[in-house]
Amino acid sequence: MAHHKAALKSIRQDKKRRARNRYFKSTMRTYIKRVRNAIKEGKIEDAEKLLPKTYSIIDKCVVKKVIHKNAGARYKSRIVALVNKAKNKPVEE
Predict the structure, then answer these.
(1) Mean pLDDT (the chain, rounded)
(2) What is the pLDDT of residues 17-46, one digit of tens each?
(3) Cα four-point dihedral sign 52, 55, 61, 65
(4) Are 54 and 83 within 8 A, CB to CB?
(5) CA 69 to each of CA 38, 46, 58, 65, 66: distance values in angstroms, whole numbers, following the listed order
(6) Exposure of 63 in the CB half-sphere (CA atoms within 13 A)
(7) How do residues 44-86 score in pLDDT, each as one tens digit?
Protein backbone atom coordinates (compact mmCIF):
# COMPACT_ATOMS: atom_id res chain seq x y z
CA MET A 1 0.00 0.00 0.00
CA ALA A 2 1.17 3.49 -0.82
CA HIS A 3 2.27 5.72 2.06
CA HIS A 4 2.83 9.11 0.41
CA LYS A 5 -0.06 11.49 -0.11
CA ALA A 6 0.78 11.89 -3.80
CA ALA A 7 0.79 8.12 -4.33
CA LEU A 8 -2.60 7.77 -2.61
CA LYS A 9 -4.03 10.54 -4.78
CA SER A 10 -2.60 8.86 -7.87
CA ILE A 11 -4.34 5.61 -6.94
CA ARG A 12 -7.65 7.46 -6.57
CA GLN A 13 -7.18 9.19 -9.93
CA ASP A 14 -6.26 5.93 -11.66
CA LYS A 15 -9.41 4.28 -10.32
CA LYS A 16 -11.62 7.05 -11.72
CA ARG A 17 -9.82 7.09 -15.06
CA ARG A 18 -10.02 3.31 -15.40
CA ALA A 19 -13.79 3.41 -14.79
CA ARG A 20 -14.25 6.22 -17.32
CA ASN A 21 -12.10 4.48 -19.94
CA ARG A 22 -13.95 1.18 -19.47
CA TYR A 23 -17.29 2.95 -19.94
CA PHE A 24 -16.28 4.64 -23.20
CA LYS A 25 -14.53 1.57 -24.61
CA SER A 26 -17.48 -0.66 -23.75
CA THR A 27 -19.96 1.78 -25.31
CA MET A 28 -17.84 1.99 -28.45
CA ARG A 29 -17.69 -1.79 -28.79
CA THR A 30 -21.44 -2.06 -28.23
CA TYR A 31 -22.22 0.35 -31.07
CA ILE A 32 -19.79 -1.39 -33.41
CA LYS A 33 -21.51 -4.70 -32.59
CA ARG A 34 -24.93 -3.15 -33.24
CA VAL A 35 -23.85 -2.06 -36.72
CA ARG A 36 -22.36 -5.48 -37.47
CA ASN A 37 -25.46 -7.29 -36.23
CA ALA A 38 -27.72 -5.05 -38.30
CA ILE A 39 -25.68 -5.92 -41.40
CA LYS A 40 -25.73 -9.61 -40.51
CA GLU A 41 -29.53 -9.50 -40.20
CA GLY A 42 -29.82 -7.70 -43.53
CA LYS A 43 -31.03 -4.41 -42.00
CA ILE A 44 -28.71 -2.15 -43.97
CA GLU A 45 -30.86 0.96 -43.40
CA ASP A 46 -30.59 0.47 -39.63
CA ALA A 47 -26.83 0.02 -39.93
CA GLU A 48 -26.59 3.29 -41.89
CA LYS A 49 -28.65 5.09 -39.22
CA LEU A 50 -26.30 3.81 -36.51
CA LEU A 51 -23.15 4.96 -38.34
CA PRO A 52 -23.17 8.65 -37.26
CA LYS A 53 -23.65 7.74 -33.58
CA THR A 54 -20.95 5.07 -33.84
CA TYR A 55 -18.56 7.55 -35.49
CA SER A 56 -19.30 10.06 -32.73
CA ILE A 57 -18.53 7.59 -29.97
CA ILE A 58 -15.31 6.44 -31.65
CA ASP A 59 -14.24 10.08 -32.03
CA LYS A 60 -14.99 10.74 -28.35
CA CYS A 61 -12.80 7.79 -27.39
CA VAL A 62 -9.98 9.22 -29.49
CA VAL A 63 -10.33 12.72 -28.01
CA LYS A 64 -10.35 11.33 -24.47
CA LYS A 65 -7.31 9.18 -25.35
CA VAL A 66 -9.09 5.93 -24.53
CA ILE A 67 -7.89 4.61 -27.90
CA HIS A 68 -5.18 5.80 -30.27
CA LYS A 69 -6.24 8.03 -33.18
CA ASN A 70 -5.10 5.44 -35.74
CA ALA A 71 -7.14 2.76 -33.98
CA GLY A 72 -10.17 5.04 -34.17
CA ALA A 73 -9.58 5.63 -37.87
CA ARG A 74 -9.22 1.88 -38.41
CA TYR A 75 -12.51 1.14 -36.61
CA LYS A 76 -14.36 3.76 -38.65
CA SER A 77 -12.83 2.61 -41.91
CA ARG A 78 -13.68 -1.04 -41.35
CA ILE A 79 -17.23 -0.39 -40.24
CA VAL A 80 -18.06 1.86 -43.20
CA ALA A 81 -16.45 -0.68 -45.54
CA LEU A 82 -18.76 -3.36 -44.11
CA VAL A 83 -21.81 -1.16 -44.65
CA ASN A 84 -20.78 -0.27 -48.21
CA LYS A 85 -20.07 -3.89 -49.03
CA ALA A 86 -23.48 -4.93 -47.71
CA LYS A 87 -25.17 -2.08 -49.59
CA ASN A 88 -23.58 -3.00 -52.91
CA LYS A 89 -24.15 -6.72 -52.49
CA PRO A 90 -26.59 -8.09 -55.10
CA VAL A 91 -29.93 -9.31 -53.75
CA GLU A 92 -30.19 -13.11 -53.75
CA GLU A 93 -33.43 -14.57 -55.06
Answers:
(1) 93
(2) 999 999 999 999 999 999 999 999 989 999
(3) negative
(4) no
(5) 26, 26, 9, 8, 9
(6) 6
(7) 999 999 999 999 999 999 999 999 999 999 999 999 999 999 9
* C-alpha to C-alpha distance for 79 and 33, rounded to whole angstroms: 10
In the chain, the domains with their CATH numbers are: 20-87 (1.20.58.110)
3-state SS track over 28-82: HHHHHHHHHHHHHCCCHHHHHHHHHHHHHHHHHHHHCCCCCHHHHHHHHHHHHHH
Among candidate residues 28, 43, 30, the one with its CA nearest the CA of residue 74: 28
Looking at residue 91, its pLDDT comes to 59
